[in-house]
Write a structure and sequence with these properties.
The complex is a heterodimer of chains A (about 325) and B (about 250). With about 325 residues, chain A is of the alpha+beta class. Chain A has eight helices and seven strands, in the order H-H-H-H-H-E-H-E-E-H-E-E-H-E-E. In chain A, strand 6 and strand 7 form a beta hairpin. The relative contact order of chain B is 0.09. Chain B is of the alpha/beta class. Classes of the chains: A alpha+beta (about 325), B alpha/beta (about 250).
Chain lengths: ~325, ~250
């Protein structure tokens, strides 16, 4: 509309009647609108790649040419005035240029618009895919901890039933409590350290039955840490790793120590176990620890929250949990 | 009377086996219980038992690694809680295994089966050796080599191995600290070690790629690989081709 008014006004200012100017304005605007519609529609289904902007430019030029030529051939049918036709052919270059600017503008806007739309769409898809992958991964990490522990525990219960039925019963209850705790926990959820330690103790008690006098644990936890929050089931794989490392690496008695403290706005948990520097795998990060690191990354988007040290036959794992 | 050992790191797990074995008290005598692979190895060498109940996952060295060190493996009934790879290997070699927790019936079946076959110990031994061969492909076994030096057991991380040399029925494993004999063939190691890191460059030699500093031409059609340690390893014509393809030259 604005375009039409503008053209009408300009043509009129060259000394033509309003009717003549009006027809001219309408026709050229309709042609231009058609060209714009074409290019817009085109861009909706086809986003030019980086190298094909030149194609787009050619398209714009061609369309501008067509609409200008349209004016040149259609307008004389509607008005036979010699002066007007003369004016028409003289103004052709200007019309072409004006049309080209308008079509180019239109092309640019619709290109931006559609690429924005496209971008949003991919962004959404990606975040959805990421979420799915994360869920699956967390599920797997949790699953992988179970079978070995579970079957061995059942085997211990099987042994106890024969000669210490009371202890067998107690272990069944510990195992059920532990499994129930594992099942109801959501991996994304943060829990107070106090609850997590309670759960961990169930696990440790079961392991102590399995390994008898060989396994001992020391847990020291600052009162202030009780309410500190950490992701559920994060501690267990670390302790499991420490036990495995400790028990499978030495043949003597093993003491696993777990210490928690608050430093700044971080909860710091340190787990230590003895190991044999001679026989251990040098990297020292088994599946369990890699899983912990991955989880910390997924939850906090940071890679520096877990570290391990090995010296003097003691292996130390430290995790830091940022507190909200 | 057959003589048996029970090797498992969990006392309660050993207890189950002992309890179930009471039903065979007239035919099987338990010599000893062992809590890890070292003890187990010592007991096997000392007593030469007929039958071993063996856990797979144990401290220091696992059940398979322990068996590798035994000169003439006895008949073995494996016990394991969960080990997909091992179970596949057991099935493939018709060696009996018990999945923990196992019941009395299943245990009886395993022992009866052993007693029925007990007349042919050579066959048992062969089965066990085939099994170890198969297990050596498992990814968990790629990380270290377990050898015996005198009465001691030495665990060599694969990273420390510089090269291997065949010596009759043995293979010498060379590390910075010295060399160790293992009564296995070169083929065994070729199966076991990661082909991206170890190449059989000669009928009698396998070398850790990372140890090679340069390769010199030697006699017609053959080369010499010079290692960081200064050792010179002969490279045969086909070995050279393999080496080139692994190194990507």
């Amino acid at each position: 509309m604005v375009w039409a008014a503008l053209v009408i006004y300009i043509v009129h200012s060259f000394g033509f009647y309003w009717v003549v100017a009006g027809i001219d304005g309408l026709v050229s605007t309709i042609l231009l609108a058609a060209a714009c519609w074409l290019i817009n529609n085109n861009l909706r289904y086809y986003q030019p790649g980086k190298g094909s902007y030149i194609n787009l430019l050619i398209w714009c030029l061609a369309l501008a040419g067509i609409s200008a030529a349209g004016c040149r051939w259609i307008l004389p049918y509607l008005n036979n005035d010699k002066i007007y036709i003369n004016f028409l052919s003289q103004s052709l270059a200007i019309r072409f240029f004006g049309d080209f600017m308008a079509i180019g503008w239109m092309a640019m806007i619709s290109m931006l618009w559609y690429s924005q739309l496209d971008h949003k769409e991919t962004e959404k898809r990606r975040s959805e895919a990421e979420k799915l992958a994360r869920d699956a991964e967390l599920y797997n990490l949790r699953q992988q901890l179970q079978p070995h522990f579970l079957f061995n525990s059942l085997n211990s219960i099987n042994a106890l039933i024969g000669f210490k039925p009371d202890e067998a019963r107690k272990m069944i209850h510990q195992l059920s409590d532990f499994l129930r705790g594992t099942l109801k926990k959501d991996d994304q959820l943060l829990v107070p350290l106090k609850d997590e330690l309670l759960h961990l103790n169930l696990y440790l008690d079961i392991e102590k039955v399995r390994f008898g006098h060989r396994l001992e644990t020391e847990i020291s936890c600052d009162k202030r840490c009780d309410e500190a929050m950490l992701p559920t089931m994060l501690l267990q794989p670390i302790v499991e790793n420490a036990i495995k490392f400790g028990l499978y690496d030495t043949t003597e008695k093993v003491i696993i120590s777990i210490r928690a403290e608050i430093e700044g706005n971080q909860l710091i948990i340190m787990v230590q176990n003895p190991y044999d520097a001679q026989t251990s795998r040098p990297k020292g990060t088994g599946f369990g620890l890699r899983g912990v690191q991955r989880r910390l990354y997924l939850l906090f988007a940071r890679n520096d929250l877990m570290e391990t040290h090995a010296n003097d036959d003691i292996f130390t794992t430290i995790i830091k949990i940022p507190q909200a | 009377m057959k003589r048996a050992l029970v090797i498992d790191d969990e006392p309660l797990a050993r207890m189950v086996v002992l309890e179930y074995l009471q039903d065979f008290a007239d035919r099987i005598e338990v010599l000893q219980e062992c809590g890890d692979g070292f003890e187990g190895l010592k007991a096997i060498q000392q007593h030469q038992p007929d039958l071993v109940f063996l856990d797979v996952q144990m401290p220091k060295i696992n059940g398979f690694e322990m068996l590798e060190l035994v000169d003439q493996p006895p008949a073995v009934i494996f016990t394991t809680a969960y080990d997909e790879y091992a179970i596949k290997a057991f099935e493939a070699h018709a060696i009996d295994y018990l999945l923990k927790p196992f019941n009395k019936d299943r245990f009886h079946k395993a022992v009866e089966k052993y007693l029925a076959q007990a007349g042919a110990p050579a066959q048992q031994s062969k089965k066990t050796e085939d099994l170890l061969e198969a297990v050596s492909h498992s990814p968990a076994q790629h990380e270290r080599i377990v050898v015996k030096t005198g009465t001691k057991v030495k665990i060599i991380p694969v990273q420390d191995v510089q090269y291997l040399q065949a010596d009759d029925d043995y293979v010498s494993v060379f590390t910075q600290e010295g060399s160790y004999l293992k009564n296995k063939t070169m083929n065994f190691f070729e199966q076991m070690l990661d082909p991206r890191h170890f190449v059989r460059v000669h009928r009698s030699y396998m070398v850790a790629i990372q140890q090679i500093t340069r390769i010199d031409p030697y006699e017609k059609d053959s080369h010499l690989a010079i290692l960081k340690s200064g050792a010179k390893i002969p490279v045969s014509k086909t070995g050279y081709v393999k080496l080139k393809s692994v190194l990507g030259i």
